Amino acid sequence: MASATQQHRRRRAILQLAALLVLVSPAAAAGGACKSEKFPAGKSYETCADLPALGAALHWTYDAAASSLSVAFAAKPASGAGWVSWGINPTGDGMKGAQALLAFKSGATYVVNTYNLTGYKPLSPASTPIAFKATGLAADEGAGGKVRLYGTLQLPKGMESVNHIWQVGSAVANGVPAKHAFGQENLDAKGKLVLAGAGAPEAAPAPAAGDSSAESGSVEAESPSLPTPSGGKKSPPAGAASTTHASAPVLIVLLALVGFLAIV
Asked: Which residue has the higher pLDDT, 116 or 256?
């Protein structure tokens, strides 16, 4: 009788552990810390994702009928007097060619500039034209020293995914954002954002690191050509591969527990 009672207690403890592992698995925790962000009245977004570099998060709403993408990008500048930036690249997956929004504090208020990053030259103190109509540009301070950058971009009809980049810098001198660092996290700050298609939209992990195109670029006022829409071809849900790989250890533990239960 005592032996049977011990086995029952052992099975119950193991099942409780298995349930806990499932609850804390990456798949169950989808959404992450970005879900706790509190925005000012009148600002809300359908989807958010914690980005895989620089402690940044992106909140967005995509209106397919209007082809408009409203975003709130949140990140902590590399220093208190630094800057944050987010943008999309219609021609590649790095910084060169990106159409960027950049926010920094000037006195008591925030400035939001637009930059067409056509090369590797210093940025200017003023905005340069970008390929997408940008409205509602603003920025404020969030919790933990983060700067939140807001904006709405008018995208071409039929666009289902975009390459996006993000970055943080440490200084702004006379209205000119200084170059960011070139650590691994800075180089990894890029990925694909799925707007429509199969599966729920997510921010995919960054492509393989090491692309020198993550460097801050030129602000020459050029208008890069835009990509042709995908023609209705559905994109796979971004982030699916990373979720599968991240959840594998949990599945292995669960299988081991099932095998153990079978022999006790």
From this structure: 116
